[in-house]
Design a protein that fits this description.
Elements lengths: L3 E4 L10 E3 L25 E4 L8 E4 L2 E5 H9 L4 E10 L9 E6 L2 E2 L8 E5 L2 E7 L11 E4 L6 E5 H9 L7 E2 L14
Parallel strand pairs: 3-6, 8-11
Antiparallel strand pairs: 1-12, 1-13, 2-3, 4-5, 5-7, 6-7, 9-10, 11-12
Length: about 190
Amino acid sequence: MNDVYLFTRYWEKSTLNASVRNCLRLMDIPTHKHESLKGIFPHDIEVIVDSKGNPDDCFLASPLLVISEKLKNVFDEFSVNSEYFAVSVEDRDGRKLNAHYFHPNILELVDCFNWSESLYTKEKGFATKINRTTLKRIKAVPPLFYVSKTIPRILCVRGDVLERMKEVGYSGPDFVRETEWKGFGDFIYV
């Protein structure tokens, strides 16, 4: 088994509602392809958080994953293969938050989905409606990566990176071992 933890079904326990105010600016931006977005990602993306207090260090503002500067710094420590684009975050009253937030365009894709041991529906060469996953053994585990050929993409973090996240007081979705992962079911997010 790999020393890898998978992103959980965060939206089931989250009380945070977040959205991109000017999401039409992202319409033609291929954020789901995990290719470089330098020069094409808009510089004026605004995220509205509709909850009390500060948002977590990691949250979804569909269609974007958003992380705090604290989490970005951890990823930088481990040389995560990602581009970071600053996003403006405001509370529900329109006040800009002082903290810095980013959309991480995670470029690392690993072909490690175990087709024979996982429970999913196969559509056009992709695993969809994933309810259980097993990953193939990875020789050199990247610090943070997406499992390729899955919809939605499964975000994974290496154990030592997760430990560092906890050390700095990370808040946000849990990451669990693949044996504890409950899947995405019918949820679609790429």
